[in-house]
Specification:
The complex is a heterodimer of chains A (112) and B (118). The relative contact order of chain A is 0.34. In chain A, strands 2, 4, 5, 9, 10 and 11 form a 6-stranded mixed beta sheet that branches. Chain A has a 5-stranded antiparallel beta sheet with strand order 1-3-8-7-6, with no helix packed on it. By secondary structure, chain A is an all-beta fold. Chain A has strands at 3-6, 11-14, 19-26, 32-38, 45-51, 56-59, 62-67, 72-77, 86-93, 100-102, 106-111. In chain A, 0% of the residues lie in helices and 56% in strands. In chain A, a hairpin with a 2-residue loop joins strand 6 and strand 7. Chain A contains no helices and 11 strands. Chain B has 118 residues and is mainly beta. Chain B contains no helices and 11 strands. Chain B has strands at 4-7, 10-13, 18-25, 31-37, 44-50, 53-57, 64-70, 73-79, 87-94, 108-109, 113-117. In chain B, strands 2, 4, 5, 6, 9, 10 and 11 form a 7-stranded mixed beta sheet that branches. Chain B has a 4-stranded antiparallel beta sheet with strand order 1-3-8-7, with no helix packed on it. Chain B starts with a strand and ends with a strand. Classes of the chains: A mainly beta (112), B mainly beta (118). Chain A binds chain B through residues 32, 34, 36, 41-46, 49, 89, 93, 96-105, and chain B through 2, 4, 31, 33, 41-45, 48, 50, 55-56, 88, 90, 92, 94, 96-98, 104-112, 114.
Chain lengths: 112, 118
């Protein structure tokens, strides 16, 4: 069966350090991989998209890598700040159809 | 502020009630979505509309009935719900993957409607 797995345990990190989150998938051939941020009681907010033929994407303090051989994406928050505390969701999109499927999410807590 | 507006923000209903959740977007997106999210779980896809036509139904019980009256509006009609249906219902919109040559992949979510079924 298809699975999208993220670290279910919360990630506690000191302010200023780099947070690294993992998204692994099986039995899936995504065309795109996306990362979203979700704050409690609010809808997810899109952060970054990476295509299957791209290795790395950056946006400000965020970096995403995509390894289709390992079936894994890494999401990095550099110089983390308390305001980065939230749940981060990876999501996969197939080439056909508008179907976006989310992983379980990883909660990040950045301590001052 | 999100560009997808959902109403109501909170809804409490009995198991025999009929109610509706509403969603509106004015970004010209031709794909619209309903997701259901339980506490500490990821959003689960329920329905996808593409150009006002239902394109994906993830085997959702018939007590949930979606409707897309036009390209800007999406409704979710609720009838005879169960307490386990209590959740945050999220609406989202995007460019349509099948037709957009410049697909960015970004889903725009509303803030959700918090539903409690008594």
């Amino acid at each position: 069966s298809q699975k999208i797995e993220q670290n279910s345990e919360a990630l506690n990190i000191q302010e200023g350090k780099t947070a690294t989150l993992t998204c692994n998938y099986t039995n899936y051939s995504p065309a795109y991989l996306q990362w979203y941020r979700q704050d409690p009681g609010r809808g997810p907010v899109f952060l970054l998209l990476i295509r299957e033929n791209e290795k790395e994407k950056r946006k400000e303090r965020l970096k995403v890598t995509f390894d289709t051989t390992l079936k894994q994406s890494l999401f990095h928050i550099t110089a983390s700040q308390p305001a980065d505390s939230a749940t981060y969701l990876c999501a996969l999109v197939r080439a056909a159809g508008n179907k976006l499927t989310f992983g379980g999410g990883t909660r990040v807590l950045v301590k001052p | 502020d999100t560009e997808v507006t959902q109403t109501p923000k909170h809804l409490v209903m009995g198991m025999t009630n009929k109610k509706s959740l509403k969603c509106e977007q004015h970004m010209g997106h031709r794909a619209m979505y309903w997701y259901k999210q339980k506490a500490k779980k990821p959003p689960e896809l329920m329905f996808v509309y593409s150009y006002e036509k239902l394109s994906i139904n993830e085997s959702v019980p018939s007590r949930f009935s979606p409707e897309c009256p036009n390209s800007s509006l999406l409704n979710l009609h609720l009838h005879a719900l169960q307490p386990e249906d209590s959740a945050l219902y999220l609406c989202a919109s995007s460019q349509d993957l099948s037709t957009s040559g410049t697909y960015t992949g970004e889903l725009f979510f509303g803030e959700g409607s918090r539903l409690t079924v008594l």
